[in-house]
Amino acid sequence: MRFIGIVRPEEFRIVTRAHVIAWRDDLERRGLEGPTRRNRLAALSSLFEYLCEKNAVSQNPVKGVKRPKAQSGEGTTPTIGDHQARQLLAAPAKETVKAKRDRAILSTLLYHALRREELCKLKVADFRHARRGAGNARR
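^ thats the sequence. predicted structure below, dont judge the formating
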């Protein structure tokens, strides 16, 4: 309201897409971070959606205005390459029982992309043993 100089509620009708874009650019110029700018544009859009629903304005001027990309954090975890996975599986000594156990744990983590907690909660019953051969093939 301050940016455009709106004093009375009826003046929301004068807001255009150009005003919204200018305000968005002003938010960026003031150094506000992307998520903050995105939240403010979302709040403004919600206000205009409400005003449209109540027939106070004819359209939402925020629709179609580009917003900063959302930073979800998804996909930012570094992945392990094939060569690194092979190095991990080769790390335990091959002769001992503990090494076999460690290799089984590592294999399960790597193959199924489990989290440590998920692996710790596994039970023997969670695994399906499917032996297929001439004598015990499923029909």
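The radius of gyration is 29 Å.
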